[in-house]
Amino acid sequence: MYQDYKVIVNTAAGRRRYMQYLVPYIVASDVVDRYDIWVNTHNGADIEFFKQVSKKYPKINLVWQPDGVVNGNASINAFYKSCIEPHTIYFKMDDDIVWMEPGLIEKMVKFRVENPEYFVVSPLVINNSLSTYLLEVDNKIRLNTYHQASASHPVLWKSGHFALELHRWFIQNYLRTEKWTDLHLGKKIMGMTRFSINAILWFGDEMAKFSGVVPGDDEEFLSCIYPTKQGLANAWNCDAIVAHFAFFTQREQLDKENILDAYGEICHKQWSKEKIMASIDNEIIAIMNNIDRNEKTLLEQKSPYNNVQVKRTWKSRFKKYVPNILLQLRELRMQDKQENGFIIS
What is the reported pTM? Predict the structure, then answer.
């Protein structure tokens, strides 16, 4: 609870390899009343992880897809219908939020209460196109060229090579030195523009105005369409920072360079200094090890959901793969011309 507001965190889940670093932050927070894990996967090993952590921590509540169908991002919308409780603050975090500064949840809930005029609010997110833009225009990061503000920017959002440089820059200069507060930017207001909703907070009372019915692309609707129609702005609290691992276009490149392991090392080191966090971390590690030992059997289990068959045509394959190939060639050309890659300093 915070000032008589119930606080509910939720995550569209997901992948245990990321959530092993997310769950400890949430279950350890005193202001969080409930953690809703939206089970949006067919993966039996990941589902078992959710079951075991929910059994271990009473704060965790498993929410099953209301329509009994899982189809990636397309099946997430139905979960919002339950996010309309009165006098409640919801904090939705992507399953691959892999680091957050100490006290972030409390800081963001406080910011939400003190800024009720905005529809959704977000922390500063490392590896989020518009958050990177904010760092760029405030001279916290210097790039090889000016990159415009765009949620789907071909470099700031899409590029795996850029994401690799960005994570390395953040880890080396701000996490390992414990100087992340040097990147704080204060409050930033935004309106009538889409942004990636990696970590957002809203009031249940506001969501109840449209019964939690989120049509189409939830990111476009929540960050842009609904607030624009209502004449509302959104806001960043850039004095609170989280790290988001990857968008799907970046994941392969980051996995090759073991960036997730680098964040894991940072988390384990920070948590080892606090008795409660160290205990939770050890419990999550034990659960992960147990699931890894039984992964083959768990993956063979029947999914609790119906499958949605997606028909692939040659046109859809062309649209999916050719732009990525062109992007990679473009990145290589840019890196050939720039000795320091995308990030100068």
Answer: 0.92
